[in-house]
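Q: Hi! First time doing this. I have a protein sequence and I read that you can turn it into a structure. Is that right? Here it is:
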Amino acid sequence: MANLLRIKIGGIGGQGVQFFSKLLINAAFKQGLNVTATSFYEPASTGGLTVSDVIIAHKNEEIIFPFVETPEILICLAQRAWDEFKLLATPRCVILADKDNVQDFSGEEVENAKLHFHLPFYGKAIEMGSEKLGNIIVLGFLSEMLDLADHYVPALLQDLDPEDAENLELLEVDAKNFEETLINSSPAKFRENNIKAFKVGYAMSQAIEYPKEKIEQHKK
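A: Yes, that's right. Below is the predicted 3D structure, encoded as structure tokens:
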């Protein structure tokens, strides 16, 4: 399991969970990594629970089970998603939750998580003029958070000494691959705003001082 990065993304219809998943798997695939993705939708197209499980592995590593039961990264974009999946958050988990849409973000799952972030991703999107950009802001945040050289989040995920993080090429999906995938996947009329939103999320992550010397929780 050491060579797998398991990500569960949950939200409600209309938040762009599946588009987020598509961009993530395409960026990882572009880098030569093995990727699987599974999706779940409730019948209601808007407001119903929507979930995507993404697993990323080294190019020589086989992914046997495509569903995420113990995520290294849990992303919740709506209260319903957090209520549904918070019990999956082990002490090895990094949690990203939207501050406006997940208002009740508390409990031992939060306190025990390796890292947790309760940030206004969709609030930033509204400031940009469209709530629909929220998923892209989260994607930008995730892209920068997984930067292998600067923040050692991959080392934290796998309980390694930060000095050994450079050997974990698996967990580094280059930001250029995220951005190129976003450009290629966005309709022309949305492309410019999507890139701006990606950079907003990227900057949000850059502003955080991730722990480098020891494992500790980030408290906003």
